Amino acid sequence: xxxxxxxxxxxxxxxxxxxxxxxxxxxxxxxxxxxxxxxxxxxxxxxxxxxxxxxxxxxxxxxxxxxxxxxxxxxxxxxxxxxxxxxxxxxxxxxxxxxxxxxxxxxxxxxxxxxxxxxxxxxxxxxxxxxxxxxxxxxxxxxxxxxxxxxxxxxxxxxxxxxxxxxxxxxxxxxxxxxxxxxxxxxxxxxxxxxxxxxxxxxxxxxxxxxxxxxxxxxxxxxxxxxxxxxxxxxx
Length: 236
Fold this sequence. Notes:
Nucleotidyltransferase, domain 5, 9 helices, 36% helix
């Protein structure tokens, strides 16, 4: 994941279920956090050995939340992002808006032969297991998950999730913006925004840092310490 912009709509190479492991899966750390600003200490969570969760990111083909066209997971083990996996998804009717293509670079040709969300999701669940999910602005990603599954007649999963945007607001109050790019920059991270693997990996890094700010290796404990309520999705 190199420091680059995807705003030009350059095609991304994402294969179904592709797996990236080790340091290659981590967003590039390019500079120290700006001096004098309340940025995250990325080393604190690493030293604590934070793990036990999976970060997720969806990209959509249109303005509809049911139009998932890619999903990625970032696995955290002992304070590091150790595994990133990505899947392309065929959105309903393989329909795309030009604006969305300009953001993430995924095109109809790339997903023409991909599987629908209801077929991809069981593979994603196999990777996640019973671990909670993390996303930056989780309300969006969870709504995509719900809408994409419901549109295709799939059942919602039972899961717990945390929002790194909400956690970051509590961990480092007073920043001018808590968007993913902006809070990542405060931490010295640059990455290819709207590349689902990169976005998931950065969300994972922020969750590790939030645990470090709360002085705990457990995300549920960090959420309680920072007074951010966990989200829950139920298939019932």
